[in-house]
Design brief:
homodimer; Aspartate Aminotransferase, domain 1; Aspartate Aminotransferase, domain 2; 2 domains; seven-stranded mixed sheet; 11 helices; aminotransferase (chains A, B); pyridoxal phosphate binding (chains A, B)
C-alpha cells in the first residue's frame, strides 16, 4: 500500500492519539481534557460574532491574539513581553513540528527524557534529527545535571508527561544557563496546574522557547490553539517557517475565542484551582487504596498498584465504562495515566477501582 | 537575526499572502475571497452547536465530514468515492505542504507551469525538491504535450492562477495517462467557477490526487478547510504524515460548519452561478475599455491594458480605494488579477478604471 509514498512515509511510525471510542459512553479520563467547558464569555463571543465575515481570510499574522497573550504574560511576570515574542499555532503539536522544521537541521541531536511526550520521537524520525534519550531516575524525576553542556537541542516537558512531575523554575533556568548556544524548548502543556512557567526566563535567555496550549487549562481541546513565547529571534524564525508552509493556520473564530479566553482570567483561575483540589483529594484516596501516586503538578496523575498489573486494570476499567491511558512501554508498563475529571467522574472511577481491587485482591 | 535558525530557514523566501491593509476600508478584489457570506445554514449551525463540547478533542480522523464529502462527490460523478479517499486539511495550503512531505523525496523533480500558484516554489525550496518550470505558451495556456512522460511529480492548478484559464478534463486525463508512475496533483481551488473536476478520474487513475478548498466557492476563507480526494493509497499516505505531524488539525466548529456547507448545495450553486454571471459581464465591460481579458473559468480575471502599465494602475486603484493583486514577475508584470466581487463592488471598480484611464490616456 505504498506506491506513491516517499521513503520517510513508508517507514515512519505515526503517533497514536488517545482512543476516542464511539461504541458507548465512557467516563473519559484518558486524553487529559478539561472536565469543565470553556468560559461562558468565550461561548457568548462565538455566538455573537459576525459569522458572515468567515468569507474573508483571517489576519495571517494573528496580531490581535498575539498582543492579548503578550499583555497577559507581561502583567503576570512583571516584565515586558511584546507580540513579536508570541507565535500562535493550530494546537501546540503544530508548533512542536514547526520547531523541528525551524531550528533543527537533519543530523542534529535533540535531547529529551526517556519517558516523556511520545510525539517527540515521531518528530525526530520525520525530520531526521537524532534523538538522545536521557533516562529519568528511579523516581521518574529529571536529573538536571544530565542536561548541562549538551551538544544538541533540548526539549523538556514541564510538568513532564505522563509522569506528572514538575521541575522548579530555577532548575529550568540552570539548564538554559548551561546550554547558551542550544535551543531549550520548554513544553508547558500542563504548567497551569501547578508548575511555574519559564516565560519568566525568555527575556533573560534567548535560547528558551516556551510552548503552551489552550487544550488543557483553557478547555479548548476541540478548538486547536497553542502558542510559543520566546525571543523575537526565535519567533521570527517560526514565522518564516509558517509563511513557507501555510500562511493562514488560525481561523477567525479561534482568534476571537482565544482573545476572550485570556480576558476571562477569573474563570481560568477558578477551574484550574478546582482541578488541583480534585487531584489532591483523588491522590489521597488512591493512596489509601494502596496505589503509588507520583507527585503531580498536572491535570492528571500517574499511578501504580503492586497487587494488579496496570495493563489488566486498564482493560477492566474500560469494560466498566472508565477510560484511562495505558502505555505498554519500558519502565512505565505498570502505570496508568488518569486525567482529573469532575468530582463526580472521579467518584465513579474510585468506586470502580474499589470493586475491581476487591475482586482482584481477594 | 538568525542565531538559532536552521540552514533552510536562513535562506528561504517565504510566501507573501495578498495584502490585508488596515489603514482604511478598501474594495477588496485582491485575495480571491467570495463576496457572499457562507450559507445561512452554516451560520445557524455554528450558533446552535453545543460549544461546551469544545473542551473535548475533535475526531482526529474527521470521519463524519469525510463521509459527507465522499457522498457528495459519489453523487456528483455517479461513481463511488469512499471516505477513505478523502483527506481533510487546515486549508488547502496545508494539504499541499503535506503532499510534498508525503510523496516527494528530497532531490526529486516536480514539474509545474512557469506561471502558476506562487506557493509551489516555496514548498519546493522548503522540502529540497527540484522544481522544473514548464513555460505556458504565449497565450498563457498549458500545452499538455509538454507534460507527457515526465520523470518527476506534476502539479497542475486547474483553472490555473493567476491566469484564470482552465484545462479540459480530457486534457488532465491525458497527462495522468501519460505519467502512470508519477503523482499528478490537480489543485482545484477555483474549479467550481467553471472548470470540470478531476475527481472523476481518481477511481480510474491512482496517480491523480485532487485538492480543493472551502476558501473560495464555499465562502470559508476565514475558516480554514480544504480536502484532497484520490486513491485510498495516496490518502492513507497523507494520513500517515498527518499523524506524524499534528493529529488534530481540524477543530470541532470547522467540522460541523463544513458538513453543513456541503448539505446546502442550492446556496453553493446559486452563489457560484452569480459570480460567473458577474465575471462574464465584467469581462465584457473591461474589453470595451480596451483591456485584454483572459478567458476565465475562475472567480477572478487576469487583465492587461496597452495604454497603462499594470504596476501603475495597481497603485492608482489602491489610492482610490480598490485593491487588486499585482505580481512584479517575469511575463505577467503588465497584468492585474482582479477578484470578482459583488455587482456593486465591480461597478465601483469599473468607474474608477474609467476615471483613471481617462486621466492616463488623455
Amino acid at each position: 500500500m505504498s506506491k506513491f509514498w516517499n521513503d520517510k512515509i513508508k517507514e515512519i511510525e505515526p503517533y497514536v492519539p488517545g482512543e476516542q471510542p464511539k461504541d458507548k459512553k465512557y467516563i473519559k479520563l484518558n486524553t487529559n481534557e478539561n472536565p469543565y467547558p470553556p468560559s461562558a464569555k468565550v461561548i457568548e463571543k462565538i455566538k455573537s460574532m459576525n459569522l458572515e465575515d468567515l468569507k474573508l481570510y483571517p489576519d495571517p499574522d494573528v496580531t490581535e491574539l498575539g498582543k492579548v497573550i503578550a499583555e497577559y504574560f507581561s502583567n503576570k511576570i512583571n516584565n515586558k513581553i511584546t507580540y513579536k515574542q508570541v507565535f500562535i499555532g493550530n494546537g501546540s503539536d503544530e508548533i512542536l513540528a514547526f520547531i523541528f522544521m525551524t531550528f533543527f537541521n537533519a543530523g542534529d541531536k535533540v535531547y529529551y527524557p526517556d519517558i516523556t511526550y511520545s510525539f517527540y520521537p515521531v518528530y525526530a524520525d520525520l525530520f531526521n534529527v537524532k534523538e538522545i534519550k536521557i533516562p529519568l531516575n528511579d523516581n521518574f524525576e529529571i536529573e538536571i545535571e544530565k542536561y548541562f553542556g549538551l551538544d544538541g537541542h533540548i526539549i523538556i516537558t514541564n510538568p513532564n508527561a505522563p509522569t506528572s512531575i514538575a521541575l522548579k523554575l530555577e532548575e529550568i533556568e540552570k539548564i538554559a544557563e548551561k546550554n547558551p548556544s542550544q535551543l531549550v524548548v520548554v513544553d508547558e502543556a500542563y504548567v497551569d496546574f501547578g508548575a511555574e512557567s519559564a516565560v519568566k526566563l525568555v527575556n533573560k535567555y534567548d535560547n528558551v522557547l516556551v510552548v503552551q496550549t489552550f487544550s488543557k487549562s483553557r478547555s479548548f481541546a476541540g478548538m486547536r490553539l497553542g502558542y510559543a513565547i520566546g525571543s523575537e529571534n526565535t519567533i521570527e524564525g517560526l514565522n518564516r517557517l509558517k509563511f513557507s508552509f501555510n500562511s493562514y493556520t488560525i481561523d477567525r473564530i479561534s482568534i476571537e475565542a482565544g482573545i476572550e479566553s485570556f480576558k476571562d482570567d477569573e474563570y481560568f483561575e477558578k477551574t484550574n484551582a478546582k482541578i488541583i483540589q480534585t487531584r489532591e483529594k483523588t491522590s489521597e484516596e488512591l493512596k489509601k487504596l494502596g496505589f503509588k501516586v507520583l507527585n503531580s503538578s498536572a491535570n492528571f496523575i500517574f499511578i501504580s498498584h503492586n497487587k494488579i498489573f496496570a495493563g489488566d486494570l486498564y482493560k477492566q476499567l474500560k469494560e466498566n465504562g472508565v477510560l484511562v491511558r495505558y502505555f505498554a512501554k519500558d519502565r512505565i508498563d505498570n502505570y496508568l495515566r488518569v486525567t482529573i475529571g469532575t468530582d463526580e467522574e472521579i467518584g465513579i472511577f474510585i468506586e470502580k477501582l474499589e470493586d475491581l481491587l476487591g475482586n482482584n485482591v481477594n
